C-alpha cells in the first residue's frame, strides 16, 4: 500500500484551546533584550556569543526529512547531515555555560525511526544526555483504563495530528526533546513545571514535600495552539508550540538565566517565550521571511529587539 509521509507539523484535526503561557512568578518583571541574527548559526555565532555565556539553549534543527522550508534544503545525504550536526553541536556546546541546559527537539519520519537517536548520538561527542523527554502531540485515553477518574466520563482523544495512510506504520504523535548538559548533573527546578497531586488524602504530607506538586515526568502533552489560517497564523512548516520552550526554560530554572539561545529560530518561538518570561535571548535564522514573522510576533511582547545581519 502506498504510504503517505506524515506532515509532522500538520494542521489541527481537532480543536484544542491554546495552552496559556503563564508569566514567570520567580522573576521580577523586566523588559527582555532579544537579538535576532539573520544568517547561518555556524558562521555568525563565533563573533557574537562568548564561550560559556548561554545558560539555556532551546532549539529544533532541520530534521533532514524533506520538510518544505522556503529556503533551506532539508534533504542532505545522511552522512553530510550528521557531519553538519556534529559541527553545530560543537559550537552550541562552546556557547553553553558549565551549568547550562541544551534542549534539543527532534522528530523523525516513520521510515527512519533511528534518525532522532542518530542526532542524539552525535551530540554525545560534546555533551551528556541528562533527560529524554517525549513531546506528546496527541493522546487517546480509554475510559476503562482510568476507572472512576474525576472528569473523565468517556474515551477521550485530544491534540492534533495528521493520520498516516499505512498498513505498516502507526500515526506519529510524538517527538523527542533531548536534554543535554556538560556534566549530566545539572540541578533542575522540577516543581516549577510540577503537577498538583490529585489524591488529597495525604495532602498535608505532600504539601510539606513539594507544595502539593509532584514531578511532571518525561511525557509532556503539548498540543499545537488552534489556528484559523495556516499561511497567516503559522507560516512555517516546522515550528514548535510556544509552551514547549517555556516549559524547558522553567524546568532548567528561571532564576540565574543570563541569556538564552536558539540557533535555528524559525518563527521565533523560543524568543517569544523568553520575552514573556523576562529573559534575554539571541536567535539565528537563515531565512529572512521567517525572521520577519519573528519580528512581528515579538512586536506584541514587552521586549527590546536588536536586529543584526
Ligand atoms: C525546525 S525549524 C525551527 C522552528 C522553530 N523552532 C519555530 O518554532 O519556529 C529550523 C529552522 O532552521 C533554519 N536554518 C536551517 N539551517 C540554518 C542555519 N545554518 N543557521 C540558522 N538557521 C538555519 C531553517 O530556515 C528553519 O527555519
Task: Explain what this protein looks like in three dimensions.
With 309 residues, the protein is of the alpha/beta class. It has a single domain (32-308), classed as Vaccinia Virus protein VP39 (Rossmann fold, 3-Layer(aba) Sandwich), CATH 3.40.50. It is 27% helix and 23% strand. The protein has nine helices and 13 strands. It has helices at residues 41-48, 78-95, 115-123, 143-146, 203-210, 230-233, 243-252, 269-277, 288-299; strands at 32-38, 54-59, 96-106, 128-136, 138-141, 156-159, 174-181, 195-196, 213-214, 219-221, 260-262, 281-285, 303-308. The strands form three sheets. It has a nine-stranded mixed beta sheet with strand order 10-4-7-3-2-11-12-1-13, with helices on both faces. Strands 5-6 form a two-stranded antiparallel sheet. α2 (78-95) crosses α3 (115-123) and α7 packs across α8 (269-277). The radius of gyration is 20 Å and the shape is globular. The relative contact order is 0.24. The site of S-adenosylmethionine has 22 residues, from α1 and β12.
Offer a quick outline of the entry:
With 309 residues, this protein is an alpha/beta fold.
Number of helices: 9
Q: Tell me the number of structural domains.
A: 1
Average pLDDT: 88
CATH architecture: 3-Layer(aba) Sandwich
Shape: globular
The separation of the N and C termini measures: 48 Å
Query: How many beta-strand runs?
Result: 13
Residue windows where pLDDT falls under 50 for at least 5 positions:
1-24
Helical amount among residues, as a percent range? 25-40%
The ordered H/E elements are EHEHEHEEHEEEHEEHHEHEHE
CATH level 3 topology: Rossmann fold
Q: Major β-sheet, in short?
A: 9 strands, mixed
Q: Strands of the largest sheet, in order across it?
A: 10-4-7-3-2-11-12-1-13
What is the CATH homologous superfamily assignment? Vaccinia Virus protein VP39
Strand-residue fraction? 15-25%
Structural class: alpha/beta
Bound molecules: S-adenosylmethionine
Amino acid at each position: 500500500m502506498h504510504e503517505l509521509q506524515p506532515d509532522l507539523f500538520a494542521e489541527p484535526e481537532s480543536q484544542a484551546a491554546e495552552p496559556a503561557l503563564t508569566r514567570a512568578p520567580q522573576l521580577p518583571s523586566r523588559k527582555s533584550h532579544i537579538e535576532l541574527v539573520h544568517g547561518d548559526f555556524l558562521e555568525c555565532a563565533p563573533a557574537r556569543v562568548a564561550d560559556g555565556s548561554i545558560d539555556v539553549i532551546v532549539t529544533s534543527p532541520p530534521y533532514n526529512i524533506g520538510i518544505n522550508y522556503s529556503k533551506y534544503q532539508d534533504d542532505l545525504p545522511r552522512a553530510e547531515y550528521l557531519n553538519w550536526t556534529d559541527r553545530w553541536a560543537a559550537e552550541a556546546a562552546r556557547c553553553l555555560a558549565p551549568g547550562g541546559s541544551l534542549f534539543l527537539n527532534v522528530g523523525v519520519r516513520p521510515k527512519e525511526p533511528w534518525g532522532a537517536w542518530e542526532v542524539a548520538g552525535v551530540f554525545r561527542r560534546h555533551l551528556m544526555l541528562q533527560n529524554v523527554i517525549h513531546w506528546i502531540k496527541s493522546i487517546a485515553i480509554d475510559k476503562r483504563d482510568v476507572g472512576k477518574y474525576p472528569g473523565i466520563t468517556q474515551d477521550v482523544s485530544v491534540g492534533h495530528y495528521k493520520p498516516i495512510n499505512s498498513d505498516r506504520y502507526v500515526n506519529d504523535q510524538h517527538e523527542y526533546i533531548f536534554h543535554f548538559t556538560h556534566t549530566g548533573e545539572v540541578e533542575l527546578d522540577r516543581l516549577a513545571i510540577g503537577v498538583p497531586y490529585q489524591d488529597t488524602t495525604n495532602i498535608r504530607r505532600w504539601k510539606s514535600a513539594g507544595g502539593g506538586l509532584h514531578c511532571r515526568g518525561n511525557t509532556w502533552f503539548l498540543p499545537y495552539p488552534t489556528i484559523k489560517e495556516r499561511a497567516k497564523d503559522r507560516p512555517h512548516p516546522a515550528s514548535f508550540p510556544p509552551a514547549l520552550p517555556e516549559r524547558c526554560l522553567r524546568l532548567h530554572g528561571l532564576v540565574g538565566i543570563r541569556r538564552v539561545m536558539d540557533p535555528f529560530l524559525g518563527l521565533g518561538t523560543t524568543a517569544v517565550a523568553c520575552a514573556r518570561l523576562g529573559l534575554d535571548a539571541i536567535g539565528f535564522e537563515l531565512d529572512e521571511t521567517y525572521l520577519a514573522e519573528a519580528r512581528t510576533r515579538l512586536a506584541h511582547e514587552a521586549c527590546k529587539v536588536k536586529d543584526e545581519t
